[in-house]
Write a structure and sequence with these properties.
The complex is a heterodimer of chains A (471) and B (222).
Chain A: H1 4-13, H2 16-36, H3 40-59, H4 61-75, E1 78-82, H5 85-98, E2 103-106, H6 110-114, H7 117-123, E3 127-130, H8 133-140, H9 157-167, H10 177-194, E4 197-200, E5 204-206, E6 211-216, H11 220-226, E7 230-236, E8 240-241, H12 247-259, E9 266-270, E10 284-290, H13 294-298, H14 314-317, H15 320-325, H16 336-347, H17 349-352, H18 364-368, H19 375-387, H20 405-418, H21 421-433, H22 445-448, H23 459-465
Parallel strand pairs in A: 1-10, 2-3, 2-4, 4-7, 5-8, 7-10
Antiparallel strand pairs in A: 5-6, 6-9
Chain B: H1 2-15, H2 42-55, E1 59-62, H3 68-78, E2 83-85, H4 91-98, E3 105-107, H5 117-123, E4 126-129, E5 133-135, E6 140-143, E7 159-164, E8 169-170, H6 173-179, H7 182-185, E9 190-194, E10 199-200, E11 208-209, E12 216-221
Parallel strand pairs in B: 1-12, 2-3, 4-7, 5-8, 7-12
Antiparallel strand pairs in B: 5-6, 6-9, 10-11
Classes of the chains: A alpha/beta (471), B alpha/beta (222).
The structure holds iron/sulfur cluster.
Chain lengths: 471, 222
């Protein structure tokens, strides 16, 4: 049976323009990242340090979340907890209803994508407007992000120019990036002016001070968190760090790994709503902490490393599979290597387990990961969990669900033959003799390759002929 | 709902035996980047800061306590600004207000945003603010908005002119946090690091400036 994933991959491979857009972008990002780390030793030290900061935070996650909540509450920020995306959406809905808000303006937030917030709110008649330029572009086209940092990376300038012209026919056609940007600025400025509820994601939450940190270049994050009278932040429970001094190294390695910038234009630290006497900023700030499977991942010492991720996207930029099939092929919120380990764990191996197979295990992802997540090992573990029989010993959702009788039987037979020398010899000699009759069609493998040919004689025979005595 | 969710999530997390903390995590060093520390003197910090700021298309002017007002006034003239938002309450703002005739029409942020949002969004050409310091390594301004210089001043007007005092120019972000005692004094409502004018590379990786925030950032280093 052909899965949706395979069908989408095939369809996307057949789009040369999209492939070219990805190739160009990822090439540039890899070079820019490399330029940021001229000193290899410093990079390795910084990676170790960043891994340690994240591992330390995870090692005391429940306590840090409680400290964070206490400090945010003391600062006047309202904290909400959601086990599922539905609960998260309902919390947002309740806040909007209390303010009688019919629209919301959003800064970039992958967790809100994870929650399917736009669909949820739009079904309630609430307009959700994305204000990050890339998100704004794909929203116009009814698409989802194809990259976690650069959501519209799959489109080129001409495609975007045509899209703008189609959606805003009153504005003259232009392919000039500056003019396109200014068009978006004018349209979105009016929305920032008028909208009373803004939403954002969070990059780091500092337990020690009760501070929400946002990393961005455009100012959409600052606008969404400052201009409207209510600010709602949504994020996963793992994004907490212990102290403020943990932030500078993480910020540095995040921006350098992601886009090759020494720092982004804005680093925004929010610690409270508008205080008495202050003249702007939201009157209310809310934080929605989303679990959505994270506490389950947390329970496995090997898979826990997944939660160290700081969402820099470097693994995506360096993945040879991603660059060919593109972000949309994954059919998930997070694409690329991080998506291939996170999504199967969140949704279950029966739903997205195939993604763990969509890797050559080349290791480029773990080589660049700033927090040293062993992505290939986790992929292997998930492959194993998918087909294992002793599912009682693992918490991974959907364990054993990818086990098929035919595959299990094949491997069982192979194992039996390989451990019985007489059978193995007979089998390999037979196969060599009748190699002309072996099938040339081996399913998916031979759709793009020729079938392997067996040698004239078996390895054992060749070794014997060479006169090597194996005894 | 939220309380049950909270209890359930925390219970699940607490069920997991505590994970050993990473051994190489040593607190005294953790603010430093990869163990690197630079020995930059003031001149080197200013040089690095300027280089980085200019690289992201900010304008940097060097001035003295005697000349900075001239510099700001020249910048306003060169950009053809018709007005400038500046606090009459801060030390620097007072000096600009005292010589109002040398500047474009001075505007003040003396009421909550709700009472003058339209003018702020569509009628202000530029804002002048002080800063809380700077970071040489990355070419960054530290801005902590206050009652006198609210948050939107450095965000909404198309031009942001900021003054940075050299003695508050730190080498790294970590050093600024430590030297200024951010944890001890408590964090303000909003603290910002600003490194250049607003920009995006979302269209074909091509840099475009002034997406939502200022199109131009002018830093006067004194
Ligand atoms: S897994 Fe590592 S490289 Fe990939 S996004 Fe997360 S932190 Fe970045």
């Amino acid at each position: 049976m052909t899965s949706t994933f395979r069908t989408t991959v095939r369809a996307n491979l057949a789009k040369p323009e999209v492939r070219a857009n990805f190739y160009r972008a990822m090439d540039g990002l890899m070079t820019r990242r490399l330029d940021q780390f001229p000193d290899k030793a410093e990079l390795e030290r910084l990676r170790t340090q960043s891994m340690a900061i994240r591992a330390n935070a995870l090692s005391k996650l429940p306590e840090l979340l409680e400290t964070l909540e206490a400090n945010l509450t003391r600062n006047g920020i309202q904290v909400h907890w959601a086990e599922t995306p539905e609960q998260g959406n309902q919390i947002v809905q309740a806040i909007l209803e209390r303010h009688n808000a019919k629209s919301i303006i959003k800064g970039k937030s992958m967790v809100s994508e994870e929650m399917g917030m736009n669909h949820f709110l739009e079904a309630l008649g609430i307009e959700c407007l994305e204000s990050d330029l890339g998100e704004f572009i794909i929203q116009l086209d009814g698409e989802t992000p194809s990259h976690i940092i650069m959501p519209a990376i799959h489109k080129n300038r001409v495609q975007i120019a045509k899209l703008f012209h189609e959606k805003f026919p009153d504005i003259p056609y232009t392919e000039d990036v500056d003019e396109l940007t200014q068009m978006a600025r004018r349209i979105l400025r009016d929305k920032f002016y008028a909208t009373t509820v803004g939403l954002s994601g969070v990059n780091f939450m500092v337990a020690e001070t009760g501070t929400l940190c946002l990393v961005e270049n455009e100012g959409n994050g600052r606008m969404s968190t400052t201009a409207p009278s209510v600010h709602i932040a949504v994020t996963g429970i793992e994004k907490v760090v212990e102290s403020l001094s943990d932030v500078p190294p993480l910020l540095s390695i995040l921006t350098r790994s992601a886009t090759g910038q020494p720092i982004t234009t804005y680093f925004n630290m929010i610690s409270s709503p508008r205080k008495p006497g202050e003249k702007d900023g939201p009157e209310e700030v809310h934080l929605v902490l989303l679990d959505n499977g994270r506490s389950n991942i947390y329970s496995d010492p090997e898979l826990l490393a997944t939660l160290r991720c700081i969402r820099c996207g470097a693994c995506i930029n360096h993945c040879p599979v991603y660059v060919r099939i593109g972000g949309h092929s994954y059919g998930t919120v997070y694409p690329g290597p991080i998506g291939s380990i996170l999504e199967p764990q969140k949704a279950g191996l029966d739903v997205h387990g195939e993604l763990a197979q969509a890797s050559t295990l080349c290791g480029a992802c773990s080589e660049v990961c700033p927090v040293r997540i062993p992505i290939p090992s986790i992929l292997n573990r998930l492959r194993y969990d998918g087909v294992r029989r002793d599912t009682a010993n693992t918490n991974t959702v959907g364990s054993g669900k990818r086990r098929t009788l035919s595959e299990a039987a094949t491997w069982k037979t192979w194992a039996w033959a390989a451990t019985h020398p007489t059978i193995y010899h007979a089998g390999s000699t037979l196969a060599t003799h009748f190699k002309g009759m072996l099938p040339t069609n081996l399913g998916a493998w031979t759709t793009v390759r020729s079938a392997p040919k067996l040698a004239e004689s078996t390895l054992h025979q060749q070794v014997k002929n060479l006169g090597v005595d194996h005894e | 709902m939220s309380n049950t969710a909270r209890a359930n999530i925390l219970a699940r997390l607490k069920e997991t035996p505590p994970q050993p903390s990473h051994t190489s995590y040593s607190s005294p060093d953790k603010g430093r980047l990869g163990g690197v520390s630079y020995a930059w003197d003031t001149a080197e910090r200013v040089r690095r800061f300027t280089e980085r700021m200019v690289a992201v298309r900010a304008e940097v002017h060097h001035a003295t306590p005697e000349t900075w007002l001239d510099v700001v006034s020249q910048v306003c003239a060169a950009k053809g600004l018709s007005n400038l938002l500046v606090s009459p309450e801060t030390v620097l703002g007072k000096q600009i207000h005292a010589q109002a005739e040398r500047f474009p029409t001075l505007k003040t942020y003396d009421q909550p945003i709700e009472s003058w949002k339209q003018e702020m969004f569509y009628g202000i050409d530029a804002a002048f603010t002080g800063t809380h310091g700077g970071i040489a390594e990355t070419g960054t301004l530290i801005v902590m908005p206050s009652v006198d210089e609210p948050r939107l001043m450095s965000l909404v007007p198309p031009v942001h002119i900021a003054l940075l005092e050299v003695d508050k120019l730190y080498t790294t972000f970590a050093e600024a946090v430590q030297e200024q005692g951010w944890v001890q004094t408590g964090m303000p409502t909003n603290a910002l690091l600003i490194s250049g004018p607003s920009k995006s590379a979302d269209i074909e990786q091509t840099l475009a400036y002034g997406v939502h925030g200022p199109k131009e950032l002018v830093v006067v280093v004194v």
